[in-house]
Amino acid sequence: MDIVLVRTFLEVAATGSFVNASERLFVTQSAVSLRIQRLEDALGKALFSRSKAGAELTPAGREFERYALSLIKIWEEARQQVGVPAGYSRTLSIGAQYSLWPRLGFQWVDRLQADLPELSVRAELGMPDRLTRFLIEGVIQVALSYTPQLRPGLTAVQVMEEELVLAASFEADMADVEQSYVFVDWGPEFVHAHSVALPALTNPGLTLSLGAMAGEYVIGRKAAAYLPARYIKRYLDSGQLHLVPDAPVFPYPVWAIWRDDLEPVVRAAAEAALVATATQIDSEQDEVMAELAEISSGDAVEVLGIAQEPE
Q1: Which of 21, 146, 212, 229 fits as disulfide partner to 99, beta carbons 3.0 to 4.6 Å?
Q2: Taking a C-beta distance cutoff of 8 angstroms, is the pair 244, 177 a contact?
Q3: How many helices (H) does the chain have, and how many strands (E)?
C-alpha cells in the first residue's frame, strides 16, 4: 500500500478537513481528495463522510485508523533500521521545538554520541502538534517540548525548568523598556501572569510567537523581551543583551516525551545523557539568575504568576 495515501488519511482524520490537510501537507485540495479516493477504492469502503463542515470518519474509517497508525510506525521503523549508516548498530530520532535545540538539544546529541558511539542520531524540528504526530507515527522516538501532548504509548518526564527573564539590547530599568518592549507569546499561562503583573507592558504593538528566536530580533534593534536565561547567557556575556533589574521571572518547564516502546538500552543511555546535559545547563542558568538578583533590589526576584506574601 502507498504510504503517502496512509499519511494523507491520517492528516485528514487529525484535522477534520480536506482543506486543512492540504495546507499541512503542502499539496492541493484536489490532490488530497484523489489520494483518499484511491485509498477508499483499494479498501472498498468509504472512510470519510464529506460535508460543508468538513470530513468525519465513518465506522470503517475509525476501524482503519488503528491500522493506519501501525502501518506508519512499521514503515518508519523499517526505514530507520534499513537506513542505519555503516558502522552504527542503533538509531534514535529526536524532535524538539526550535527554542530547545540550541543549548539543550545539540549538547544532548554531543553527549549521546560520546556515550554511545554506535548510535546514529536523527534530528527533527517542530511545534508541539507536529512533534506529537511524529511520535505517534514513529518518525521520532523522543521529543523536547514546553507543552507536551500526551497520547497512549507516550510518557512525559520533566527535564528542567527554564527561567524566562526580561532582557534588553540596551542598559535599561523597567520604566525604560515600555517604548521598546516586544511581547513574546510563551503560552496561555505566561500571557495571564504577564497581564496581571505587568499591565504597563500588555500592549506593545508587536507580538512574536517565535520562542527563543525572538532573541535574534531583540539583539538587532533597540528592544526588550522575555527570553530563556540559558539561551541568552552568551549574549549577556558578550554585552549584546542586558538583564533588566527588578523584572519578574517566569518558570517554564521543559519536558521530554518518550515513546514507551523505545529500545531499553537506547532509552537508558538517552535519559542519562539528557539528565547530565540539563544539569550542566542549570548551572549556566543559575549564573544568570544570580546576576539578576545582584542587580535587583529586595531579597528575592519576583516570580510571575505567584502572589507575593503581604508584609
Answers
A1: 212
A2: yes
A3: 10, 11
Specify the pLDDT at position 56. 92
Question: What's the CA gap between 101 and 107, in Å, rounded?
Answer: 8
CB atoms within 10 A of CB 142: 25
Query: Could you tell me the three cell numbers for 266?
Result: 537506547
Domain at 89-306: CATH architecture: 3-Layer(aba) Sandwich (3.40)
How far is 258 from 144, CA to CA, in rounded Å?
A: 9
- Spatial separation of the C-alpha atoms in residues 260 and 224, rounded to whole Å: 41
Domains of the chain, residue spans: 3-81, 89-306
Percent of the chain with pLDDT over 70: 95
Q: Which CATH class is domain 3-81?
A: mainly alpha
Residue 85 DSSP SS3: coil
**Residue whose grid cell is 507592558:** 201
Q: Which long-range contacts (CB under 8 A, 24 or more apart) does 106-111 make?
A: 107/277, 107/280, 107/281, 108/273, 108/274, 108/277, 111/273, 111/276, 111/277
Q: How would you classify residue 170: left for phi > 0, otherwise alpha for psi between -120 and 50, otherwise beta? A: beta
Vertex 32 angle, CA 27 and 34, to 5°: 125
DSSP for 176-192?
TTGGGB-EE---HHHHH
Q: Which amino acid, 177?
A: V
C-alpha distances (whole Å) from 286 to each of 106, 149, 304 are 20, 29, 18
